[in-house]
Structure prediction request, 287 residues.
Amino acid sequence: MIDVRLQLTYSGFDLDVDLHLPGRGVTALYGHSGSGKTTCLRCIAGLERAEHGFIQINDEVWQDSRKGLFVPPHKRALGYVFQEASLFPHLSVRANLEFGLKRIPREQRRVDMAQATELLGIGHLLDRHPQHLSGGERQRIGIARALLTSPKLLLMDEPLAALDSKRKSEILPYLERLHDELDIPVLYVSHAQDEVARLADHIVLLSDGKALASGPIGENPGAARPANGVGRRCRRGDQRQRQRLRRALPVADVAIARQCPAHARSPCTAGSGQGVAHQGAGAGRQP
Prediction:
């Protein structure tokens, strides 16, 4: 079980969530830009420190503000995949992967080089350098490097947002393999309906720093119960259920818009410590 309670205030933006999420599978944090998705991930990673927070990942507590406990980011057993892979340009793919692997003592490794390269289909790329890779290939290397840190939690912040539709379609099957073959819980940030419908088992609808609903993926996320509600689990093999979800996600967008009418007029973006502003007002989204 993943328990996340966060209260964090920026100028013009308040994050206030209380989430109880499954300790396995893929949980999607879904909502418009500026809803607080990336801020949640940054708090879980320890890159932001909530004034009032409690973060427990299965049997490990990473933050408990009441007890003054805050585990620094480098001591949290997590992998973080950003929109850009941020590979070391002077190193080969193999050396980039070894950078992640060497951080973990041999006896604590849960994912080895052979497994990561096979899962992501990158064995033929090991001797190349990043400048000779496509965007999709670079992102697969970044995911493999995160896996080689043997994380107990994998955070993915819109990992496909920088890719065109062709590259997205190439990488999605690899993300499905991670879900099916590795027992590592994933928190997946996205505002792309097709990604959520294809990958997620559980969904959290976020708007304006609040969780509108949370529960296993069912037919109608827009009508889901408030956070911690229970819905029907969507089995990965049930393609008809996935198709119904694709039709239902726009309903979730309507539910979000009703809670935050400004979204219906203009998408919002969240700044790094700069609060929330509408596009054109000078606030930028965190990378």
Summary: Confidence is low (pLDDT under 50) at residues 219-238, 254-287.
